[in-house]
Amino acid sequence: MRLGKDGTSAGADRLPRLAPGCDPASLSLTPSEGYLLSRIDGMTPLSLLRQMGALPPSEVDRCIARWEKEGVIVYAGRTSALARPELPPPPPPPKAKAAKPAAAAKPPSVDIDPSLDLSVEMQERVIEFEGKLALPYHELLGVARDADVRAIKMAYFGLSKQFHPDRYFRRNLGPYALRVEKIFKKVLEAYELLSDPATRAEVQSQVAAPAVPAAAQPGSAVAPGAAAAAAGAAAAARNLRRRLHSLGRTNQALEDRKRKAKSFFESGMAAFKKERWLEAAGSVRLALAFDPENEVYKGEFADVQRKAHEERARVLLKEADGCYELGDYKEALRAYEDALHYRPFDAELAFKTARLSWKLGADLRKAKEYAMAACELVPENATYHRVLGQIYKAAGLAANAKRELQHALRLDPSDAEAKQELKSL
């Protein structure tokens, strides 16, 4: 099927019908595709099929084109009584002398701007990641479909350190500011919906069904003759009626899901207005799980979740500080690490977590990562570089320790602790 310049189907008055011998019950369809196929009866023109609302018009065009190619549908020999007669196609223009194909133009590099406060490498990373935003959530986060909550959390933590907009506060990102915001919203959406078992089950059940298999390929076993064709059409009609009954129940279930989603969303926004952030986040998350393509829910989701993250971080930091004062350092470290998942852009929090992890000797590799994050976020802080040097020293990496300690002293020549550590190397 041809598409017009506006992306709609050309010949919108044509009348598609099921191909003889096609058994709709044997096809693998999404509920929306099944609804569309049930309305293909040889009497309804394409222009009306595109307006029935089961799928967007552009998706209807794609389904019709695919089914025609695969032999699922054919076109009736007449057109709708409301249709204008099609004019015969114009004669082909005279053949012109074949011109030498021009070399493919190199795409402009306007996306990369070295003058921005964002490295060229990071700009390329943003462009690359932006092209992946339509992937399923687990692929977007780079985890297995059956990944556990810890793996999902670690994947989110790694990506949020790169793409959290607050990391680039007061930096000139140019057009990348909106792109980073767009990426972070999608990463946050993926993390929240996959880390909650209830919403994870809902969104993973929404994965599209595989493409419809060809129903009548060349060489398939279809008896020749008009009688066989009529018998096949009658059998297809019987199977279609049975499938329509099943689709009716499916469509009702879809409507029920949309109603539930609407109820969850309204409850969430009411809680949001009352600044009950965690309650609002849970409700909006459920709304999006039940109706994952709703753009309104998506638009509000990131703002609600950010407030919820701030609240979670506040609670965890209070808990961590309390445990630290009581001398329960292991619990304090756990709470600091959990808070850091919600505030990966917080340099002071990263520093506290690094220093405590180092003091406990819990995990020097993680302590190093936290300290490096703090130094990257606030590179002019001498204390952060000194603690990173001390962590390198504890890990036996003398050259790295010396580099960081010397850097700390350049930033703050009066740092006696850094001087002492440097002498002991």
Describe the structure.
The chain is mostly helical and 425 residues long. It has four domains: 1-80, Arc Repressor Mutant, subunit A; 120-204, Helix Hairpins; 255-345, Serine Threonine Protein Phosphatase 5, Tetratricopeptide repeat; 346-425, Tetratricopeptide repeat domain (Serine Threonine Protein Phosphatase 5, Tetratricopeptide repeat, Alpha Horseshoe). Helix content is 60%, strand content 1%. It is built from 17 helices and two strands. It has a two-stranded antiparallel sheet with strand order 1-2. Helix 12 runs antiparallel to helix 13. The longest helix has 48 residues, at 226-273. The radius of gyration is 30 Å and the shape is elongated. The termini are far apart.
